[in-house]
Amino acid sequence: MLADLALVGFGHVGRRFARLLDERREALARDFDLTCRVTGIATRRHGAIYNAGGVDAVGAAGLLEAGGTLAEAGAPAGVTGSHDVIVRLAESPAALRVLVETTTLDIGAAEPARSHVRIALTARCHVVTANKGPVAFAYRELSALAEGSGVRFLFEGAVMDGVPVFNLVRETMPTVRIEGFRGVVNSTTNHILTALENGEAFAPALAHMQAEGIAEADASLDVDGWDAAAKAAALANVLLDGGVTPRDVDRTGIGPDTASWAREAMTRACRVRLVASARRGSRPIVRPEELPQDDLLAGLRGMANALILDTDTLGRVVICQLDGGLTHTAYALLSDLIAIRKGCAVAAGV
Amino acid sequence: MLADLALVGFGHVGRRFARLLDERREALARDFDLTCRVTGIATRRHGAIYNAGGVDAVGAAGLLEAGGTLAEAGAPAGVTGSHDVIVRLAESPAALRVLVETTTLDIGAAEPARSHVRIALTARCHVVTANKGPVAFAYRELSALAEGSGVRFLFEGAVMDGVPVFNLVRETMPTVRIEGFRGVVNSTTNHILTALENGEAFAPALAHMQAEGIAEADASLDVDGWDAAAKAAALANVLLDGGVTPRDVDRTGIGPDTASWAREAMTRACRVRLVASARRGSRPIVRPEELPQDDLLAGLRGMANALILDTDTLGRVVICQLDGGLTHTAYALLSDLIAIRKGCAVAAGV
């Protein structure tokens, strides 16, 4: 089965996805009868290309990284931005048409990602995204739109990179009801808290994260808890039918003051962690909490993330990511793409 | 779609499964278009029944628990044991025919479970089992048999009860290669080790587990590491293409001597845990290990289990079960049943 893909957003994640797709080409064909062809790429600052016969996404990634623009990638002109690229994708005759959305999070209104997703779903294109915005701000609207169009809206990469969270619940825990969750879902703040415990001060610990490219240039997304709040909203919307946005999350971040608390907690054999939590029917919460050391979340160091799901059938089930990174997020997009392929087979078979 | 089920083994797990099936009847019909009918039940000591029109499995569970026998369940006679029940299942005209195998583990040769599974797969019946034996002793043979017959052989309940391990890898981590694993997979020994850390002696800690029905009457399965070895073999066979049996596992259990080690370890801020591990191409190992407290496995208390999967794409991914129990194991069978239903749709659709 042929899938035409439009990559909207072509930063670190989008480019890593293009390469991963190439690396796994053989496995996709062999194990899932899936052949993927990238037909369009749209970036914010480096132009857009579309070619119904396919573009060289790996070559384009190299060009951009060498300081070039998409115009040099040799594809015909005629598209000027993300909107054009999605419209052209919708005209593809391929069995599967998929928007791969990897623009960065806008915590104000999830734009332009939300519009990209809406346009694609309306045009009966499937959507996979690593952007938390659309699912955190507009899950009900977009999932209803996807259902009405007979396509999928998937976002495994929105929480804990490629480690399955949404796919875990949907694919492996059928008929199980999730009652709530607690988790450490932001790597930057966890890394900073670990550094504070080791005696570093807040500002250098944050600067270190930014220098390593782990923290956002705009640190407030991480340290003020907005990233965790977007993830908490996404989890609450999908797992608990929350109908919330990140602005509905009761949110407290971390700051220079947290350093003394983090070190004092250790003298009580406790750890301070930025915890995101929610119960069915309640407002999600993001705040630093002092946890006893036998709390699984207290044991998370550095980049590690974990989510404890409280279920009606299996008690508490925990999924953890001990390592994180670009490849993981790119893999989340790939696993969603495979879920779409498998879902097509089911839809045809039932 | 109608599924006829034969329950072979009708102890605590089998009876809890019969009730869970009844409790989830509506969700199975609504979400998966799946109607399950129990047509046969076979026990070791309380007889066997079969009725092509269906038997009252919940009623039969109540009868047995009240000290009765299956003969009183009112189904026509004509079957004398598990073999007859599977043969009758194979004659069913239902779209899905499924053996639900829940006999207890035989660590010598996995019998009679292995024969039950073999007969059913040969007769083109699907198999779901919570018994570790068949997958630990004969995964290659039985999975090849299933493939040749065009049916499924599933065993989610063999490791970590209903918390997804095999389904996690198969359904949510497509194209990912597992390179190895480390885990705490036996609840009884973890409970005993926790009790030793709290100052209890070995014998009373074990007796306590047996009184609560957590440890096997034959304690050697747990404390000598045989249960963990069977799980390690099952994991190695499925995730690492191991081709091993529990006898190939390099196995060390725990005993009265472990008490002083467990307490000394705590003075070094460490914990002793019974760890099951394997790498691709190597012999699995089960042995008590002294772990630093920042090892996630060191933090597991009481009944908690965890498995760390070492992957080529996602680094280390961890799945934990903080609570365990009968309902969890029964749910594993149900989730396998749903996987069979979903797989049928895929097979028809591709």
- The share of residues in extended strands of chain A comes to 15-25%
The greatest inter-chain interface is formed by: A-B, 52 and 52 residues
Write the CATH homologous superfamily of the largest domain in chain A: NAD(P)-binding Rossmann-like Domain
Order of the strands making up the biggest sheet of chain A: 3-2-1-4-5-6
Secondary-structure element sequence of chain A?
Answer: EHHEEHHEHEHEHEHHHHEHEEEEH
- As a whole number of angstroms, the C-alpha radius of gyration of chain A is 20 Å
Task: Please outline the helices and strands.
The structure is a homodimer of 350-residue chains.
Chain A: E1 2-8, H1 12-23, H2 25-32, E2 35-42, E3 48-50, H3 57-65, H4 82-90, E4 96-101, H5 113-122, E5 126-129, H6 132-149, E6 153-154, H7 166-172, E7 178-184, H8 187-197, H9 202-211, H10 220-223, H11 226-239, E8 250-251, H12 258-267, E9 270-279, E10 285-292, E11 305-311, E12 316-321, H13 326-349
Parallel strand pairs in A: 1-2, 1-4, 4-5, 5-6, 8-10
Antiparallel strand pairs in A: 2-3, 7-9, 7-11, 9-10, 11-12
